[in-house]
Amino acid sequence: MDPAANSVRLAPDVVVPLITQLFAAGGPGAPPVDRPVRISALVSFQGDRRTLTERDLTRIAAALVAEALRDTAPPGARDDGGGDGEGAGERALTDALARSLHALGSVDMDDVRAVRLGPEAFARHLAVAAPDAGRELPPAAARLHTAVLYAVCDRILRFLVQRSAFVARGLAERAADADAAFEEVYARAIIAAHDHLTIYGIDLAHSPDTWPLDAAYLSLETETDAGPTAPAEQALAGRDRVLLWGVAGSGKTTLVQWLAVSVARGRLPGQLSRLRGRVPFVLPVRRFRQGGFPPPDRFLSAVRHPRADAQPDGWAERVLSAGRGLLLVDGIDEAPEGDREQLRQALRELPARYPGNVWLVTSRPSAVRENWLASERFTELKLAPLSREGVTAFIQRWHAAAREDGTDLDRLGSYEETLLDAVRITRDLGRLATNPLMCGLICALHRDRRGYLPRGRKALYDAALSMLLERRDRERAMVPPDGIDLPQEPKIRLLQKLAHWMLVNGRSEMDRTVALETFAQHLPAIPHAARQGGPEEIYRHLLHRTGLLREPTPGSVDFVHRTFQDYLSARAVVERHDFDFLIDHAHLDDWEEVIRMSVALARPDECAYLLEGLLAARKDSRPVHARHRKLLAAACLEHATELDPTVRSRVHRYTRDLVRPTSLEAARALGWIGPIALEMLPDPTGVSDEEAHRLAVTATSIADDRAIDYLTRLRGRTSWAVRSQLARAWRRYDTDRYAEEIIAHLDERELDFPVSDAAELDALHRLGGRPCVQISGAFSPEQLTAGLAADRLTELWLSYDLGDDLDLGWLAAFPRLHTLRLSPRNAAVTGVPEGVQVIVTGN
Whole-model pTM? Predict the structure, then answer.
């Protein structure tokens, strides 16, 4: 029996009164409701309390069949009964259903057992009890009889639950037991699926291409417009709804994995202890975007989770209704722009319908506007670029993991030391090492090339492809385990075909069958590959040997990171001269990276054509799209190796007026175009404080030390908003230079000076300290008493998680201190000196 194969819908307002008639009404002599009762004692068409005749049973069956046929009926169901024309099929169905319902009076089962079986198994019992009911029906009608019987049994069991509190309690207890058992299995599946990361370049010989999450995970920093930076774990603490922005490669998905695995294991840092016992749902948007946001009962099947079919009926609904869920919605930007409003609506409705659950939604910044979910009380956070300390920690962590494979042990220490020096000293390298993806590539290339590093993003990705696709196997004299030996260029060509298909179809994942069809179409044009295997063999080779592809779920394939897909898409577009194709889609935010990389790959005349196309007026183009295209043209300039000076000048001319932002949202948006924006920003010396603040927001969004030169022209402003913006940006730049050229010149009045690491604390100490200091990095009491100016400190803001160090008696070292600000999670401190006012703030 497979009711899902030919399911029918029975309207409750029609069906419930009919089902109710099948059972005797309550009153004197009615069966009890405080213990199991045989179903045969409940029916109303037999026994001492009989109220229905055989004709009545047929009438009820006819009404049920008519309701079923209203929406769903296979061809011939109404007139194919093997009888005499119109209506014969319906009459045959009615007779069959009446005989099946009559079996309720003879089935050997009580109401508790029936409910525990569920509608499908209960329907099978009725079919066994009335074996001749549908024997004479033709195949199509027999399938419909099965589906109607299933739907009717579903309503019968609902009636039995509503009738008896005893049955309802037993069902709830059974559901709770089944839920608990499934959640144990589900937690193990979450850990198995997400407890690993790819650390590029470690799998140079026989080592695996993944690394345990615990060994590879680096705590990420978040930031808001109004507050200091904070570790992601700390920023998420106490918040039920968060929209997290992060650029490509910034670690959004890694954070989602870490949260899911940590919750599944029950191993959480103290600040996230409130997540203990929750059930994580990892919901990558790319998996379900075409069908819209799934309802709870389809969460697992929509993302093709391997345990989807094993979940108890109604389990996800019960989890969310109890407020026990942790919903991790990853990658809003991976949905087509036209579908995002539908996702937004779902993210409005579901948290309201199921209060008490915790939501984390991630997206690239350009995909959704500011305050996209603010009306639903989502806090907006941004993943900050890796600080200098973060880059150092990542490099050290990467090399520690690399030592585990047992190779290059005599060189890894030297590699680590020279790379740390290079990242600190070399400006271009420092600009690239801003997120975990880029840091991983840099570490891998530095090791693979014995200390040589390419310069610039194009060179970095070309070198990474060379490392992943050819050099790592060839230089180690590895014999191809699958017998396929392809040079680099055919591999790139084939991978480009997959990336280009995803670009054209707006996908970041494709079915395995589509990948094989794509290879089948293009292999004849790549004879070197065609000679070594068919689509299946070549697909497996690229999947297992390149390090660029993965199968996130059975039957699907994607690139290990979206940035590789974008880069290979750009290569394909440039080779095909599809520049008009790029220009037509330039207003879509998920095409930005492809277009910027295409400029880096294009020849001078192609680059000029593409940039001119971005600037050109387009019929029926919306003003916001025209502005986006022009800003994208400006962002592309830094990637153009060679470009006609007149084209470069035209881009500057067309975008000059666009770089005077009129809102803070526009000011932040300008920052994504990169250092080239610094050349176009107006002189801030003669503008109002409001405009100066917006210009400061744009300039401090550009994590390049060249921004310091522009910011020096804003350092003398008395506006608190400008001064605060400059102070908060310290962590993005060279510590000592920024301290000397910016921090030292800021008016101290009513300004909190942020300190996030030991280098900043030392620099502030050398400047003589400041009266108001905001500590956002984790420090020991000894570090703070030594680093803060005891004779100047009047206000202190401890915005990091104090953990177990809640005794603040050490504050007695600061005799002028009169105000202490703390977050709610640190409110239980002790030992605060007398006379110090404690303010608990939510920021």
Answer: 0.59
